[in-house]
Design goal:
The chain is α/β, with parallel strands linked by helices and about 525 residues long. It is built from 14 helices and 17 strands. The strands form 4 sheets. The protein has a 6-stranded mixed β-sheet with strand order 5-6-7-3-8-9, sandwiched between helices. A 5-stranded parallel β-sheet has the order 14-15-16-12-17, sandwiched between helices. Strand 6, helix 5 and strand 7 form a beta-alpha-beta unit. Helix 3 crosses helix 4, helix 7 runs antiparallel to helix 8 and helix 11 crosses helix 12. It is globular, with a radius of gyration of 31 Å. The two termini are about 45 Å apart.
Length: about 525
């Protein structure tokens, strides 16, 4: 056990006018199960890179004995053709095989996978192999950057159980159930500061909602009080000026009696003027105090903007129908024909999607969920299909693909290419917590979460009868997930979607289809 202390940490990217971190101070323990949360683009992965010493920064990061290790591992495309064991031992030559095997067993994996080419492993197998290697190392503090992205529910549950038994890591994840199950502390990158809590995510979120509600209410009270004090100060100032004028006769239009000009009476008016001036100063002082208190509020309040969708009605109730639908992919060694023993990725699937339904496809990785979406869109290639998969003619579809890696160029170019109202498109991005300065960047420079928000904003701007979303929440922060839950429940569009965030699915799906 050792302490990791961050003092006066400041960092900003070259050619960027905004700082990612500025004079940040906090302390964490290397034995904690620490979750890290915050908005997309707030600097979570950047903070990991700083701990790894990949960027220059000002301030200090102090740690004793600890070595930071980052997940996912960087395995080159050329090395992926090697055996998994060879790939990993190139990165960590001082590993101990027996320890790796113990960790694999805890992850319900056979050590046999170490002797298969890395590229032949599924994404879930690669993830578990990497975690086994990293947790087998001594004196390491692991930096886990969204380890469950793209994983099916079974793999997520396995990693959740595994991490629950571990300690000494920071976990970036936007999966609320995973954070609640695995962590005992939470590091939150707020809008104005960084805070550490001894809490799981849900407990922190409950407390944050209460704190935000209190600050919003207090802010409204202070606004009213400040307005009242301003009026009272102005009135006191007018009274003081009038009293001072009466003392020397400035405000007397009519003749004044001699006794009113007496020295004693002038002393009385002077004292009255002095009291009025003091009252004005007291009111001004109270107003300044209220203003200072008001400035301390709302800095970290998460007010999720209300998103909008544009689902349009369709003249048919039945949108999509499948009857005994089967898909087989062409074998690589047989480009012209399908072999008789080709294993179908989808076999005799039957279902209907009707107006107003939100059907979530559930199942393990590789079971054919994304294949079904592509088949419905007519984009399935290199495959043989049998049975019926019929989409109602004339449906207007809004589609979000699983990967956003193809995005490049400017936001304006993207909006023009896709026929979007540019102003509306930027408005939706702002509602998804895009900073205006991001609008000037090229999309290839965005974080993965920001790229996914571009796809989401496009879909929310498009009028559509049917929304087909393929893992829309990968890399998306928790706050934006809540916004999306709200807009879907409000507008109730017809949807066909693949998503592994079970909290999200329970809130938005009307039914699920298990593969």
């Amino acid at each position: 056990m050792s302490l990791i202390t961050v003092k006066n940490l400041s960092f900003g990217y070259e050619n960027s006018c905004d700082m990612v971190f500025e004079n940040v101070n906090f302390q964490i323990d290397s034995s904690w199960k620490l979750g890290l949360t915050g908005r997309n683009g707030c600097g979570k992965t950047t903070f990991f890179r700083l701990l790894m010493g990949e960027y220059e920064y000002s301030g200090t990061i102090e740690c004793k004995k600890q070595q930071f290790q980052y997940f996912p591992l960087s395995v080159s495309e050329a090395d992926k053709k090697r055996l998994t064991l060879e790939c990993l031992e190139m990165l960590y030559p001082d590993y101990e095989l027996w320890k790796v095997c113990v960790e694999l067993n805890l992850l319900d994996m056979d050590a046999e996978l170490l002797y298969r080419p890395f590229e032949t492993l599924s994404y879930g197998e690669q993830t578990r192999a990497e975690l086994a290697f990293l947790f087998s190392l001594d004196y390491t503090f692991l930096l886990l950057d969204e380890p469950t992205n793209h994983l099916d529910q079974n793999s997520r549950e396995m990693i959740q159980k595994y991490l629950k038994k571990k300690e000494g890591f920071i976990l970036i994840s936007h999966d609320r159930s995973l954070l609640d199950a695995c962590i005992d502390h939470l590091l939150v990158i707020n809008r104005s500061n960084i805070e550490v809590y001894q809490s799981d995510f849900s407990t922190w979120w409950e407390n944050k909602q209460r704190q935000d509600a209190y600050e919003i209410k207090k802010n409204e009270q202070l606004k009213k009080e400040i307005g009242r004090l301003e009026q009272a100060a102005k009135q006191a100032s007018r009274w003081a000026e009038k009293t001072e004028g009466n003392k020397i006769g400035y405000y007397r239009k009519a003749a004044v009696n001699e006794h009113e000009r007496s020295i004693g009476n002038r002393d009385y008016l002077g004292e009255k003027s002095k009291r009025m001036q003091q009252r004005r100063k007291n009111l001004e002082s109270r107003k300044e105090k209220e203003l200072q208190e008001k400035q301390g509020l709302l800095k970290n309040v998460e007010e999720a903007a209300e998103l909008k969708m544009n689902p349009i009605p369709f003249h048919k109730k039945l949108y999509l129908e499948a009857k005994d639908f089967t898909v087989c992919y062409r074998q690589p060694e047989n480009e012209e024909n399908f072999s008789e023993d080709s294993s179908p990725i989808i076999q005799e699937l039957s279902f209907q999607l009707k107006e107003g339904e939100r059907l979530a496809l559930q199942g393990r990785n590789g079971c054919g969920k994304s294949t079904l979406l592509k088949a419905a869109l007519g984009e399935l290639s290199n495959a043989r299909c049998s049975g019926l998969l019929q989409l109602a003619g004339g449906l207007k579809i809004s589609y979000i693909p699983q990967s956003a890696g193809f995005l490049s160029g400017t936001l304006q170019e993207y909006a023009v290419k896709n026929g979007l109202d540019y102003t509306l498109f930027l408005t939706v991005l702002r509602q998804l917590d895009f900073e205006r300065i991001q609008f000037e960047k090229r999309m290839e420079d965005f974080s993965e979460g920001q790229k996914k928000k571009v796809l989401l904003a496009k879909s929310l701007c498009e009028p559509a009868n049917l929304y087909i979303w393929d893992e829309p929440l990968n890399y998306i922060d928790v706050f934006s997930r809540m916004q999306l839950e709200q807009v879907i429940c409000s507008y109730m569009p017809t949807m066909l979607l693949v998503e592994h965030d079970q909290t999200f699915i329970k809130k938005v799906a009307t039914r699920t289809l298990d593969f």
